[in-house]
Amino acid sequence: MFADVLPAAIAAVLLMGLSKSGFANGFGAFATPLMALAMPITQAAAVMLPLLLVMDMVSVFSLRKSVDGVVLKHCLPAGVCGVLLGWLLLSVVSLAVVSVLVGAMTLCFLLQRLLPAGRIDWHWRPIAWLMAALSGFASFICHAGGPPMMMYCLARNMAPGHLAGTSAVFFFMVNVMKWPLYYQMNLLSSGNMHMALALLPVGIAGVLLGVYLAGRLQRQWFYRVSYAGLLLAGVKLIIDGAQRW
């Protein structure tokens, strides 16, 4: 059975690893849906969680000198609250609604960044709380928390290294919070953990490759790739949500 899902699983984990490194930000939103092509969505999310934790640890270690403490201080408490809210509302919130909401916000953000006037003040602290909470919420529901946090960091015009390092620490803490909640929901079965262990080298390789590539991209191209990833992720999330409606 594992051999049947292996191609989709490898592609999904490699894509998530690249995204976790700060390179190709936004593309990680494709990982769980891609893996879900070969297995149930709940199993795909369960397999991804331990991989996300390990990839986060590799990212944090690789980018430990490039972390914006001010952004983390503002965002981490709200991100944790978002995870808890997702856990509490899981039985009543539709996955389709969350996908469409995050996708629509992502596309609105990109449109807003193109407009010459009327831009939002992204240094306003309630904006940080909102985006971090939405990121934690969407991360718990469907591992799609990347776009909201990336929107906030990109809008602040953070340096690529600091953006990647800050995001790595934020999502490591978010995913640590998700672990006992997934366990309580009986999603962390031995079969899913064995599959995650088999895919672990792919995830680590993806993170290290992404760190290498991100460190060699000029700031202008880093942002272009990130915006392209958000565009594709936004469209993908809306399509996924519409299909589940």
TrEMBL record:
It is a multi-pass membrane protein. The keyword Protein biosynthesis does not apply. Keywords: Cell membrane, Membrane, Transmembrane, Transmembrane helix, Transport. Its main location: membrane. InterPro entries: TM_pro_TauE-like, TSUP. It is found in: Cell membrane. Belongs to the 4-toluene sulfonate uptake permease (TSUP) (TC 2.A.102) family. This is Probable membrane transporter protein. It comes from Vogesella alkaliphila.
